[in-house]
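Q: I have two molecules that I believe assemble together. Could you output structure tokens for the complex as a whole instead of separate predictions?
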Amino acid sequence: MTLLGHNYIGGGRSGEGDVKLLSIAAATGEAHAVPFLTATEAEVSAAVDAASAAYPAYRALPAEARAKFLDAIAEEIDALGDDFIAEVSRETALPAGRLQGERSRTSNQMRLFAKVLRRGDFYGARIDTALPQRQPLPRPDLRQYRIGVGPVAVFGASNFPLAFSVAGGDTAAALAAGCPVVFKAHSGHLITSELVADAIERAVKKTGMPAGTFNMIYGDRVGAQLVKSAGIQAVGFTGSLRGGRALCDMAAARPQPIPVFAEMSSINPIILMPEALKLRGDAIAKDLAGSVTVGVGQLCTSPGLLLGVRSPELTSFIEKLSAAFGGTNPATMLNSGGLTHYNGGVARLTQLPGVKVIATGGTSYTQAVPHLFKADAALLFSKEAPLEEEVFGPSTVIVELESREQLLDFAAKMNGQLTATLQAEIGDLQGNQDLIAILEQKAGRLLLNGFPTGVEVSDAMVHGGPYPATSDARGTSVGTLAIDRFLRPICYQNYPDELLPAALQNSNPLGLLRLVDGEPTKAVVNDPRTA
Amino acid sequence: MTLLGHNYIGGGRSGEGDVKLLSIAAATGEAHAVPFLTATEAEVSAAVDAASAAYPAYRALPAEARAKFLDAIAEEIDALGDDFIAEVSRETALPAGRLQGERSRTSNQMRLFAKVLRRGDFYGARIDTALPQRQPLPRPDLRQYRIGVGPVAVFGASNFPLAFSVAGGDTAAALAAGCPVVFKAHSGHLITSELVADAIERAVKKTGMPAGTFNMIYGDRVGAQLVKSAGIQAVGFTGSLRGGRALCDMAAARPQPIPVFAEMSSINPIILMPEALKLRGDAIAKDLAGSVTVGVGQLCTSPGLLLGVRSPELTSFIEKLSAAFGGTNPATMLNSGGLTHYNGGVARLTQLPGVKVIATGGTSYTQAVPHLFKADAALLFSKEAPLEEEVFGPSTVIVELESREQLLDFAAKMNGQLTATLQAEIGDLQGNQDLIAILEQKAGRLLLNGFPTGVEVSDAMVHGGPYPATSDARGTSVGTLAIDRFLRPICYQNYPDELLPAALQNSNPLGLLRLVDGEPTKAVVNDPRTA
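A: Yes, here they are, computed for all two components at once.
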């Protein structure tokens, strides 16, 4: 394991800067010896230029070549051994078991996008054949497919050092789409980033991808320059509302505005229904305490707000949940900044009139202590919406509402969310279709009788949702639909077959399901121009 | 034909304002007697509220119900008679024949979106069935489809008073997506707007759509409030770069930023190759003069820049084109503001060192005179890019380049475009794949041996392109893909079959082609949860 601490630019390494970042052990605060050199202004530009130079060749590759590249990245990631896992664990305090699982998730995510490339539906191929005899005017031959938008800047998250970082979902989606990537490494896991970047670079070389297909820069203040760089055509981000919104504002103010897909802030409400509580109250309390504290609560989908209408079942459930929280333990967060931030959030809630702490998981000055709060329903409707501000860590707030109507009122005014969960039996759901309809307008994913933590990487997943959950509800940052964010349509009018991309040729050499004259078909096109 | 001049709000009419707009005859400047009342701040809010109130019911309608609504609008538009066409012609100076064609285009556009609704691919239905036995963790049942984003603000264009206005492409796409519309009427065709809005309202009532599904407000200064209104979730716009960018900036600065799909500015370059000029120079010159002057050059896809590498064929072609322009005539523009703007653009080019007028189509003080300019190639590379500024009207600029390399250089630095056209024979194209690859990066639609004016409304059309052609290259404002702009995905996790929307139910009651466990199929889902 050789560590250099230099930026990845166009297939080479560059360390011109004199601002150093250090890899800190999350549990002890100890710094690793190797300094990581913040990219200089010239290096940021060089990384964007390298991605821009790679773009024409990279996007023009057959999808199968990009699929092989993603498969090769997956293999390289799987091959990162126990010493790698140990380093990631040192930097993040996440246990080895969780990180081994996350490693598989990350490599399988690459493989899933390889499958998407082979399936070919991402092309969105559409063909309207010529109608030379049409009156009053003939229709020309028109063929549409989608290409990568250009170089993409990706900002990794701290909480998933593998699955939402260097080789994470945004990188996988962008590379699959044919977009070279400039990745801004997260300072919370520098060595992890370097080792994963090395793995990607090995895959670049093994599969003969253009130099500059992947680039990575270090630095806490390089993000603004990156997003403002003319060569960057889209941005993927996972992190705080403040950070994400700042990038959105920068991107919108560019001479050429570009889209930013920022996954930012969600309290992931869970609505608790009486019959479910009666039948499964113990299990829900136990699982909920687990969902709030898993990953030390450092998950985008961590449930931060629990809602129920006043009932004997709810009262009894709150007791069970308190007991379950009492059985949890303090745990080390990803970094000391995270702990400070969490403690600040806990203090804010604790001091709020109408909020009380009803259970904690021990005490600690160096680790995050799980907190269960109970808050007055009136706070849901206060103008500052104090219960809708995400507290990133192992805490949650339960609120006893007066009535179903009050629940509907809050749901209708609630901020956008990544997820909204119902704990309900069939009897609970009768007459609550209106509640579900409201939740559809508020969240990207609706769950019944599960917990929002644990985001499946699949075709049907949506990890997105209305603002402030994300900056654009039309995207998802997990699952195969994530590729859509980085594609744009292009139409060829009256191009002869031999000049068209393979995806659009008459003979359908890629075997795609295409929309031809309004019908989905894999058939060869009957082209009146050559008949 | 009863004209009221009041705003359309929630199925009723409202005229509280005291700022009046008048319908002006384009040819004579005469004002129509009926005043149109600018919406007050309260009326703008009321229109957004009406759309917001309609949204839950409207989006929840079966797609077939929305299809019937669009079909009904189409019927009502077709039924607008000769007196309607005469009024539109009076307001716009567009000839009756063109407007009759545009009326058909507008109604057929509605019918095409009805077909999309019936085809059902807009749902983007994806199902990942549960894997209860999977290790280490089971996979839950996950199902995704797309719903309308919410109320959409649409700003109509002046140049297509029917097809890009009240019942135009943006309105059709938004209504199809399940999004109520608040339309800002263009002051250039107020009576036209009112008559078309009446047609839509008749369709609303005939098909029982919720009141507030369609709303329309008058006023030159109501747009900012509309875009800033919290209820509005997306914006469609066709117009100037300045106007479109201002809306983008406003939308990005909202507490909740929203997407703006603005189609703004394009010079639609045409590249002229020697063999094509040799074989078809006469025809190209004639057709090109026609394409530049059709609709008095007031088309988004009007060719504003002609490029060729110095050759005897090009020299000869320029003579032919000059002759063809000499045979064109002045014509009345949509309004006097347009003429002033066009004359300003012509004056700017005329005074530019390195540019000369080589042909005009007559003289006039009250009408737009077609102009053919010839410009030095160096101007293409000047920092101010004076030849890339759109002149909206019947003029174009031809540039003789020194070499193929210079052409490639310019193509690579050129702004984003709606279209890029090659006039070329097979011999011309040999060795020019690199040029085509560059054009793919620059434009939404690539044409071979046609002219960019005349935008087919179909599945494969792209009327979009990189900035400043549009604000978001991932969208199109013409063709069925336009619906995608107003849809967002939503995922249901572990919802029982009976609570799922029809599009996602096991039995596939809508007969959709769905992506089930990674395979496209119309089959019934084999649900392990109920097996």
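A: One point stands out. The radius of gyration of chain B is 25 Å.
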